[in-house]
Known about the structure:
Layout: H1 5-8, E1 13-17, E2 21-25, E3 35-40, H2 52-73, E4 77-81, E5 91-97, H3 118-138
Antiparallel strand pairs: 1-2, 2-3, 3-5, 4-5
Amino acid sequence: MTTCVLCHTDGxxxxxxxxxxxxxxxTDTPAYPAFYRVIWNAHVAELSDLPDADRxxxxxxxxxxxxxxxxQLAPTxxxxxxxxxxxxxxxxxxxxxFDWDSHFPAPIWAAAQRDPADDRLAALTxxxxxxxxxxxxxxx
Length: 140
């Protein structure tokens, strides 16, 4: 696809590239710094477009990333989403959510519920290099 951004760019800070998928940290979401994406490398729009083995491999990666995020950050919740409305290229969003974040318990795309907790965001951001290393190491 000549216009698909995920076919032409990594889509964020690349942590690992496998033959079928890649893992990135989204760098365009300052209010949600612990925002990761598992992106299928081939251009397909839906999870059901994948053969059974590939679909299972994709979901295994998503689950592994989620487990590591939970172990490293102890979030209130991990949000998983595979919307694809804006970018119809199969990718999973994994977002660490905390009861103090500006939108919790609403989705990150909803209206903010409160002002950002800048001190907590700064502390969370400081944890990300260690999380990035753990995620990268888990797939090498």
